[in-house]
Amino acid sequence: MRKNFAMKKLYYSISEVSKITELEQYVLRYWETEFDNLNPAKNLAGNRIYTNKDIKLILYIKKLLRDEKYTIEGAKKLLKNYNEKEELSVKENKRERTAYKQPAVLKSNELSLFNFSDTERQSAQPDTDKFLKKDLIELKTFLTNLLDELENT
Fold first, then answer.
1. Residue 106 banded pLDDT, cuts 50, 70, 90
2. What's the average model confidence in pLDDT over 40-60?
3. For the segment 68-88, what is each residue's pLDDT rounded down to a tens digit?
4. CATH 1.10.1660.10: does it fit domain 1-82?
5. Cβ of 38: how many Cβ atoms within 10 Å?
6. Given phi > 0 = left and psi -120 to 50 = alpha, else beta, which region is 74?
7. Distance CA 70, CA 64 (A)
8. pTM of the model
């Protein structure tokens, strides 16, 4: 049974991921040791923080192991191909965003539109506006969901 994400968040705790994926927390921690691809970041307190990409990977691993009955070694081999597909889509995405130049000092929680200098913004190609609009829509959706959650608590 696949759970629907009620609210998209940037990061999920291990307990939230456990509920979403219907897996025990110890299973998630064990899979981190077995699958190199699964490597959630940790916050300042040392707690695991999972992204939506991590959750998709966990659900894929679960499908391979539980539904399709692969061994851990067999799943590892398939995940190598999974990584290649991910890398190809990332490379294609980078090619599409060549006009969307990000500064080297960009922090992971910052949007690129706030880091353009005036000269960079003026010299950017017209396609940049499309990507900036996409960032703003995503930010608006996130903030709206966050406000809704705060109002409901």
1. very low
2. 93
3. 999 999 999 988 877 666 655
4. yes
5. 17
6. alpha
7. 6
8. 0.53
Enumerate long-range contacts of 74-77, CB under 8 Å, 24 or more apart. Answer: 75/35, 76/34, 76/35
Question: 8-35, pLDDT tens digit by residue?
Answer: 788 999 999 999 999 999 999 999 999 9
The DSSP element (H or E) to which 2 belongs, if any, is none
Integer CA distances (angstroms), 105 to 101, 112, 115, in order: 12, 10, 9
Per-residue pLDDT at 59: 95
Distance, CA of 64 to CA of 78 (rounded, Å): 9
Q: What is the C-alpha separation between 2 and 22, in angstroms, rounded?
A: 9
Query: In whole angstroms, how far apart are CA 144 and each of 110, 117, 150?
Result: 18, 28, 10
